[in-house]
Design goal:
Elements: H1 8-12, E1 18-21, H2 27-43, E2 47-50, H3 58-70, E3 75-79, H4 80-86, H5 106-120, E4 123-127, E5 131-134, E6 139-142, H6 155-169, H7 174-194, H8 201-220, E7 232-234
Parallel strand pairs: 1-2, 2-3, 3-4
Antiparallel strand pairs: 4-5, 5-6, 6-7
Length: 237
């Protein structure tokens, strides 16, 4: 949660990953994003970029272009509209951070993720009712998740940190790392949503955090039982 880019070089030296969540696009914030990402790039540590509301204003579109031109992001996570903006498509006006209703087919969404991954030479996560993950060569669809995730503010931020942590921990195959993190996150949300003590979004949040913790413990203990409910498909694009 460091907001001062002058700390980035030291923090990068400690390992881990950097998450840049473009919640604020003040000149100071964008400067900090650039400095921090470049510091992690210099140390060979992974950087995840979440271009929040990228298509909402010209200021945000400009910030995105500046960041893409100046830094390397191992992972980019965004909804359909945000991914389109990163590909230079400004035809859809985004309202706030939400993607809005989509008119794209499943294969079109998979192609968007693949195209940006090829362009940026990284892993792209296109989030939605079905999530699409691609490294430009391999593309997967993940159909797990729970509707309460879209009813609670901040779940996208939690997903970003989960994916970044997985990439930092498994450097051999970042697509596999991102895919694993996505499944952990989405399956935890399903488990939380089924609990009898969950009555709505308010009670869902602590239950979701508990279930994510439980799955993380199972991973540490090499218990793969939680993956039995995984809904994942390879997409031929």
């Amino acid at each position: 949660m460091a907001n001062n880019a002058d700390e980035a070089s030291e923090l990068a030296g400690l390992g881990g990953a950097l998450v840049i969540n473009m919640g604020s696009v003040t000149p100071e914030a964008v400067s900090n994003y650039l400095k921090a990402a470049q510091a992690y790039n210099a140390c060979g540590r992974p950087v995840l970029f979440d271009p929040v509301g990228a298509g909402a204003t010209s200021l945000r579109r400009g910030a995105v272009q500046s960041l893409l031109a100046s830094c390397y992001f191992e992972v980019i996570k965004g909804n359909e509209n945000e991914i389109r903006v990163l590909l230079g498509d400004f035809s859809t006006q985004q309202r706030g951070v939400d993607s809005g209703a989509s008119t794209s087919s499943d294969i079109e969404k998979a192609l968007l993720a693949q195209k940006l991954a090829k362009q940026e030479r990284n892993v792209v996560v296109l989030t939605g009712q079905t999530d699409y993950i691609s490294d430009g060569t391999r593309t997967y669809a993940v159909k797990n998740g729970h509707e309460y995730l879209s009813r609670v503010t901040g779940t996208g931020c939690v997903l970003g940190t989960t994916l970044a942590a997985c990439v930092a921990a498994h450097r051999e195959d970042r697509l596999l790392a991102v895919l694993s993190g996505m499944l952990m996150f989405e399956i935890a949300s399903e488990k939380a949503g089924r609990r009898e003590d969950v009555k709505g979004p308010g009670t869902f949040v602590p239950a979701f955090i508990d279930e994510l913790y439980i799955i993380a413990k199972q991973v540490q203990e090499s218990d793969a039982g939680w993956t039995a409910s995984a809904k994942i498909e390879a997409v031929d694009v």
